[in-house]
């Protein structure tokens, strides 16, 4: 009786961990066969999933992942798209659809990305923040501002995900697209302050250039030029891309 009593806490802990890992499978859109492995082969199945899936995500920092993606994209720009498309065809999960949409966006295939995000955002995933934001950004690139704003208004119902810097940036762009200039100004200014990279600052500078505020736009571009000189070489190309976007808007304004 004492031996059985002593094993009960371990059984309970194993069950709790298995449930937590099963939730991770569902929330991250992993292939559903992992659920069977985790729940049927406790605790070994959960351990396998943790080592194969969770641990690499925890140990690999965002910077390392970003550098790896940049290197792969430079050597073979279509590789991620091909792999994502194959994964989506083999296992059409929401995660794989989202991955393919992201890869399509990187190649400028915004119509395909918008369709994929819309198809993925169904059922229990209809209000998924990542899918809504991805679709809204694709719609903005397609100059479909009113539709993008409608999607973003759904996203902003979420008090946390709807007010992230990237969501605020997209909202500012959508406001500008539909002529709500004052609201666009406020949102883009906020995004420029909150976003760590160059995109927020560049898009706000471009907005100012398009709205007759050339001196302010020039000052923002000068600030970006200063930041570029201090930027690590591996991130300078992306930073210059956004700086040039603002400079182009200023030249055309």
Question: How would you portray this structure in words?
Answer:
With 253 residues, this protein is an all-alpha fold. Among the domains are: 109 residues, Serine Threonine Protein Phosphatase 5, Tetratricopeptide repeat; 58 residues, no CATH class. It is built from 14 helices and no strands. Helix 5 runs antiparallel to helix 6 and helix 13 runs antiparallel to helix 14. The chain is elongated, with a radius of gyration of 22 Å. The N and C termini lie far apart (82 Å). The N terminus is likely disordered.
Mean pLDDT: 87
The CATH class of the domain at 76-184: Mainly Alpha
- Give the N-to-C terminal Cα separation: 82 Å
- Helices, by number, come to 14
Order of secondary-structure elements: HHHHHHHHHHHHHH
Largest sheet: none
Strand composition percent: under 5%
CATH architecture of the domain at 76-184: Alpha Horseshoe
Unreliable runs: 1-6
Q: Give the CATH superfamily of the domain at 76-184.
A: Tetratricopeptide repeat domain
What structural class do the secondary elements suggest? mainly alpha
Estimate percent helicity. Answer: over 70%
CATH fold-level assignment of the domain at 76-184: Serine Threonine Protein Phosphatase 5, Tetratricopeptide repeat
């Amino acid at each position: 009786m004492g031996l059985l009593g002593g094993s009960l806490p371990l059984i309970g802990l194993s069950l709790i961990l298995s449930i937590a890992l099963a939730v991770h499978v569902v929330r991250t859109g992993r292939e559903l066969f992992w659920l069977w492995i985790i729940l049927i082969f406790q605790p070994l199945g959960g351990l396998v999933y943790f080592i194969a899936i969770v641990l690499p995500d925890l140990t690999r920092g965002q910077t390392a992942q970003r550098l790896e993606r940049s290197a792969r994209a430079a050597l073979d720009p279509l590789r991620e798209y091909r792999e994502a498309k194959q994964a989506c065809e083999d296992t059409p999960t929401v995660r794989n659809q989202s991955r393919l949409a992201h890869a399509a966006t990187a190649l400028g295939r915004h119509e395909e990305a918008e369709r994929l995000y819309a198809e993925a955002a169904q059922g229990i995933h209809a209000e998924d923040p990542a899918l809504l934001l991805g679709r809204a950004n694709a719609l903005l690139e397609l100059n479909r501002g009113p539709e993008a704003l409608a999607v973003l208004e759904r996203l902003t119902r979420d008090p946390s995900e709807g007010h992230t810097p990237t969501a605020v940036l997209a909202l500012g762009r959508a406001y500008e697209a539909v002529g709500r200039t004052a609201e666009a100004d406020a949102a883009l200014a906020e995004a420029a302050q909150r976003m760590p990279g160059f995109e927020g600052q560049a898009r706000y500078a471009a907005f100012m250039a398009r709205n007759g505020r050339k001196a302010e736009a020039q000052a923002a571009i000068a600030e970006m030029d200063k930041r570029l000189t201090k930027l690590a070489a591996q991130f300078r190309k992306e930073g210059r891309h956004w700086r040039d976007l603002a400079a182009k808007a200023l030249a055309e304004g």
